[in-house]
Amino acid sequence: MKLLIKNGILITPQGETKADLLIKDGKIAAISKNIEEDCKVINAQGKHVLPGLVDIHVHFREPGFEGKEDIESGSKAAVKGGVTQVCCMPNTNPVCDNAVVATYIRARAAEVNLCKVNPIGAITKGEQGETLADIGRMKSAGVVALSDDGKSVMNSYVMRLAMEYANGFGLKCLCHCEDKNLADGGAVNEGFNSTVAGLKGIPRAAEDIMISREIALSESLDIPVHICHVSTYSGVEIIRSAKARGVKVTAETCPHYFILTDGIITSYNTFTKVNPPVREQRDVDEIIRGLQDGTLDCIVTDHAPHSLKDKQVEYNSAAFGISGIETSLALSYTYLVKTGKLTLCELVQRMCARPAQILNLTGGELKEGAPADIAVVDFDKSYVIDGSAFVSKGKNTPFNGYEVYGVVEYTLVDGEIKYCNK
Ligand code: DOR
Ligand code: ZN
Ligand code: ZN
Using CB atoms within 10 A of its CB, is residue 25 exposed (0-12), middle (13-18) or buried (19+)? Predict the structure, then answer.
C-alpha cells in the first residue's frame, strides 16, 4: 500500500518545509520535493502536514462508563481532532488496576482500529491509595504508564513505593496533584470569583503541595516523574526551578488552562467545571511562559467526556471534566500560534514529539522510517465550536461559540486514512 501527500507544508524536526511525503507499508518512506509515484495522491496544496497528535491524557471511560464515552466514540473523536495516539486513564469501572482490564482495552482498541490506544494502569488497587496495583503484570499486558488520575495518592510512603516499583518496570507515574484535605470538596478556583459566585474554592496550594511532594520524591529517589494538568502559576515556577536543579520531572497542561480564567464560573455553566479548576490571568500568563521555555513539556487534553445528566445539575453536584479531544489542536493553534506566543513548530513539539518521548511511544515526528501517523490541516479555515456537533459522546465543552482556526482534513494512522472530511 502506497500513498503520496503532495505539495503540503510539512512540520518536521528540522522545521517547516514545502515537500511531498510518500507512505509505503504504513511508514514514511520518503520526504522530498517532487516525488512522483503511481498511487493514490492527497493534494495538500496550501495545507499543513503534521505528525498526528499524541495525547497522553484522555478518559475513554471503557469499561464501565460507556454512556459517557467508549473506545469507539473516543477514537472517532480523536481522529477528527488530528490525534493518532492516546493514553487512557484507568478510572474506569472496573478500574484498570490489573492485566485483565489492560488487555481488554488493547483488544477493544484493536477491533475499533482507528487511533492507537494505550492503557495507563492504576498506581493503587481501585485507585484507593492504599495497596499497590499489579504493576508487573500490567506492564506485561502493555500499560505505558501508571496513574491514579482523578486523585493523588495521599499517603507519601505508598507513593514512594509506587515510584520505586514502577521505575523497576520502566514505567513512569503520571501524577494528578491535589491535596484532598485542602481541596475539601471545592468546585472552582478559590479567589474573588468563587466568592462572587458563592461556590466553594480550591486553593492553588492544594495543587502546589502535591507537585512539590512528587518533585521531592523524584529528586530524593532520582526517579523520573510526570506532573499532570498544571493549572497554577506557582506550580509552573516550582517545576521550573526543579528542572533547573536537574530533577527528572516533566509536565503537561491543557488548552483550558491557557485560555480560560475563573471569571466564566459566574455564568454557573457546569461545562466550565474541571479539576483542577481554571484559575486567573496570572496563571494563564505563567502557563504560556512555561510552554514557551519548556517548563511545561506538552499539551494534552484531559479529555473528560460526561453525559448531560451528569452536567445538567447544580454547579456543586456536577461532574468535573471537559470534552476536549476534538478541539485541542484548533484551540491551541488559535490561542498560541496565531497570537505569536509559539511557532507552529513549537506547538507540534508540545503536542506530538514531546509527549511521545515522555512515555517512550513511537510517532510524534515526520521523518523517514517513522510510522505514518499524520494529520493534514487547513489552518486558514476557521469554524465556530459547537459541542452538540461533537462525535464524542461528551458534549461538555466550555468553548461553545468560540471561533477557532484549524480544520483537520485527513488523519492517517500507520498510513491508513482514518478520518477525512472532504
Ligand atoms: O476534571 C477532571 N475530570 N479531572 C480529573 O482529574 C478526572 C476527570 C474525569 O475522570 O472526569
Ligand atoms: Zn487529573
Ligand atoms: Zn484526567
Answer: exposed
- Cβ atoms of 210 and 160 within 8 Å: the answer is no
Residue 255 in domain? yes
Per-residue cell: 371: 510510522
Q: Which of 311, 320, 74 is nearest to 183 (CA)?
A: 320
> Catalytic one among 149, 208, 283, 302?
302
Residue 151 lies in domain:
52-358
Determine the angle formed by the axes of helices 156-168 and 204-221, rounding to 10 degrees.
Answer: 50
Structural domain total, the chain: 1
| Residue whose CA is at the smallest distance from ligand 1 atom 3 | 321
Counting Cα atoms < 13 Å in the Cβ hemisphere of 160 gives: 9
CATH number at residue 80: 3.20.20.140
Per-residue pLDDT of the chain (422 residues; tens, 9 = 90+): 899 999 999 999 999 999 999 999 999 999 999 999 999 999 999 999 999 999 999 999 999 999 999 999 999 999 999 999 999 999 999 999 999 999 999 999 999 999 999 999 999 999 999 999 999 999 999 999 999 999 999 999 999 999 999 999 999 999 999 999 999 999 999 999 999 999 999 999 999 999 999 999 999 999 999 999 999 999 999 999 999 999 999 999 999 999 999 999 999 999 999 999 999 999 999 999 999 999 999 999 999 999 999 999 999 999 999 999 999 999 999 999 999 999 999 999 999 999 999 999 999 999 999 999 999 999 999 999 999 999 999 999 999 999 999 999 999 999 999 999 98
| Residue whose cell numbers read 514512594 | 160
Residue 84 C-alpha cell reads as 493518532
Whether residue 81 is contained in a domain is answered as: yes
Ligand nearest to the CA of 301: 3
| Sequence letter at residue 267 | S
H or E segment to which residue 161 belongs: helix 156-168
User: How far is ligand 3, taken at its centre, from the CA of residue 230, in Å?
Assistant: 11
Torsion of CA 158, 159, 162, 163, to 10 degrees: -150
Whether residue 55 lies in the annotated active site: no
Residue 195 falls inside a structural domain:
yes
- CB count within 10 Å of CB 183 equals 23
- CA-wise closest residue to 150 among 351, 304, 273: 304
Distance 202 CA to ligand 1 centre (A): 15
Spacing, Cα 100 to ligand 3 middle (Å): 21
Confirm whether 421 is domain-assigned: no
Whether 305 lines ligand 1, by a CB cut-off of 6 Å, is no
